[in-house]
Amino acid sequence: MWQSLLRSNSFVQNAAYMFSASAWAILIQFLFSPIISRIYDPEVYGLFSIFNSWVVVIGAFACMSWNQAFVLPEKPGVFRALLHLATRSLTVVTIVTTTLFAIAWPWINELFHANALGAWTVFVGPIVLLIALDRILVDWSVRQKAFKKQSLISLPVTAGTKGFNVGYGSLISNTVEGLIFTHALNHLSRIILYFIYVVKDVKPTFKSKVNPEDLKQAKSDYAAYPRYMTWSNALNTGSNYIPIVILPIFLNSTEPAGLFSYALVVLDLPARLLGSGVNPVFLQKAVELNRDDPDQLPRMTWKVFLILLALIILPLLVLGVFGESVYEIAFGEKWKEAGLLAAIMGSYYFFRLISSPISSIFNVKRKERALFWFQLTLFVARLAALLIACSVTDSLVEIIIVFAAANAFVYWILTGWIFILLKRYVWQSLFVSAGTFAVLAYLVVWLREILG
């Protein structure tokens, strides 16, 4: 019954489209990363990481999360109302951000030990706009189930922007603006292609007037999104970038931020693959099952959980054992320490990779407030771990060990929480994830000792 249900609703086919697109994009980035790592130094990459942390944290507020509800309403008028609310919020946030950074950029740079950024800091506002527009169009395309079209634009955009990055860094300048330009170009290209090729009826939808009753219904039915989801997203995003903000302040250099960020280059490959390949398709399918056949939803989620678990074991085992060697060979001697950081953080990515792709169950079950409390817990745990570690040691490796342990525990709790909402497989998920992690950790330690 389960397999026939998946086939009849094109879950596997849509997931395959998204996996394929993500895999090609990741392969391209992997091929370009060794070149880029030899163009840009850790200090420069640290500067860009600090700049990007401002962009993504502010970007979490840009649409007030109205766009995350695009897939939920059955009534087209309510969807148009959500689109109107998202774009209106984006306009306000962009104006405020651009004005603030245009006035205060010297003081902001000084606070974060990022003086080498100079006036490039002013570009935070415009890039927030690009990222938010990109996100709106992606969520809109998920509503239209345009998974195949999404997959077809991923390859040219990724290849083109990475090629630009290499060309600019090699021929013009290997300073931070090359990374900023590439970031902006990537989102701008995606926006243009989504407008032209992926999303249907963009102009008529934007031009059509929003019915006051639909607007009122959208605000009422999805009030939890700006109230809770926005803050959940902001806490999640902010907590992801806490190390990039904290490390330069305590260690008086942007290099630790650069090493930490590049450690995530490899770790984020499976996270992005599973996120872009599983998340949108899982959300769309989960919404359908929750509405039409809710008894099947726990079974689908459990099966996806087991598939995720099986997919991540080998990559994390290889990274845990050979992290430093992989980074030294692939990216150069100056990034070897980033490989050690990646091996350490594999412990928390284990739990993140099996829980985050299915965490949209919070949205499906309309438990946005619960997700907010999880994100708040994660934020506090990450901040506390870093502050405590930085107060007792100036060793970057020791700081990241404490940070990874705090993350692993909180994401393990998230695993159980997801299945609590489904009222099935709660203890199974906790025991299976913890047991698998224990075996994996033992193998990593044993193999590292044997191999020296």
Q: What does it look like?
A:
- With 452 residues, the protein is mainly α.
- It has one domain.
- It contains 18 helices and no strands.
- The chain has helices at residues 2-8, 11-37, 42-62, 76-111, 124-143, 147-171, 176-198, 202-207, 212-221, 224-240, 242-251, 255-292, 297-331, 336-355, 361-364, 368-392, 396-422, 426-451.
- It is globular.
Compose a concise summary of this entry.
With 452 residues, the protein is mainly alpha-helical. The protein has helices at residues 2-8, 11-37, 42-62, 76-111, 124-143, 147-171, 176-198, 202-207, 212-221, 224-240, 242-251, 255-292, 297-331, 336-355, 361-364, 368-392, 396-422, 426-451.
Topology:
Elements: H1 2-8, H2 11-37, H3 42-62, H4 76-111, H5 124-143, H6 147-171, H7 176-198, H8 202-207, H9 212-221, H10 224-240, H11 242-251, H12 255-292, H13 297-331, H14 336-355, H15 361-364, H16 368-392, H17 396-422, H18 426-451
Helix pairs in contact: 2-6, 2-12, 3-4, 3-5, 3-7, 3-10, 3-12, 4-5, 4-9, 5-7, 6-7, 10-16, 11-12, 11-16, 12-13, 12-14, 13-14, 13-18, 14-17, 16-17, 17-18
List its salient traits.
mainly alpha; single chain; 452 residues; disordered N terminus
% residues in beta strands = under 5%
Distance between the termini: 50 Å
How many discrete domains? Answer: 1
Helix content: over 70%
How does the helix and strand content classify structurally? mainly alpha
Could you tell me the mean pLDDT?
Answer: 86
Instruction: Give the helix tally.
Output: 18
Gross morphology: globular
How much is the radius of gyration in Å?
Answer: 22 Å
Quaternary structure classification: single chain
Uncertain runs with pLDDT below 50, 5 residues or more?
1-8
